[in-house]
Predict the structure.
Amino acid sequence: MQLKGLYTALITPFDDKGNIDEEGFRDNIEYQIKNGVDGIVPVGTTGESATLSEEEHKRVVNIAVEQVNGRVSVIAGTGSNNTIEALKYTKHAESVGADAALMITPYYNKPTQEGLMKHYSKIASEVSIPIVLYTVPGRTGINIEPETTERLSKIENIVAIKDASGNLDQVMKVIRNCKNFTVLSGEDYLTYSIITLGGKGVISVASNVAPKMMSEFINAALNGKWKKAKELHYRLYPLFKILFIETNPSPVKAAMQMLGMPSGDPRLPLVRVKKESEEKIKYILREMGLL
């Protein structure tokens, strides 16, 4: 599977009672497809996977695959800090027709690099669905080192990595040393740089809010239209930064509420953004002509 382009790390919208807003989730998917994304990523970090029950997790993936109906790719979040649980979620995603699985490094446990090798290798050996590694040490406490990524990239169905390490030296090592392997940006603000280095796209938070502009940006960059891509990067840059003014996904959920899109509050222990942050988000949305 060749992953390339813009993939939106979808929020999971909740209703006033804190239950999954299934109709709203479907509406958000349609909005993404209508505005040109290449794929969606349900139940990742932005989808609040950590606070969804097993039943809810599977239901969100089911809805995503059903609603998309083959029109774009579905990369289902299936990671866990428990290898057996991650395998169960990955098998489920494969069984319902997801195109790939996004697997975060086991958080809190802080496994060694050899532990990461065994974690991913075990899961890859028991499924055939393409696997996208996901390194985000700021949230998990552990990084997939470039040497480990290189070893894992030799496993047939481990096809890509979402890199949210913020370390461009690491990105370059992976792109240089891993053949027939895709690097996707996991940080919106570094996407321009990562694509210039040989990355193939982004799994984006900002495209929840501005999918059309993000799609134009990614298409320009991937097609070597650097002047246009650079202009769009700097136009989008304030949005990239403001959506992380507090812990993701609280800011993007606030932004979507302001735009009248299905969202709802995040689940505890995450909370709504502070009033001060809300005003800053509103200012950026207005400045960009989104509000």
Remarks:
- The radius of gyration is 18 Å.
- The beta strands are 5-9, 39-41, 73-77, 100-104, 131-135, 158-163, 182-185, 201-204.
- The first helix runs from residue 22 to 34.
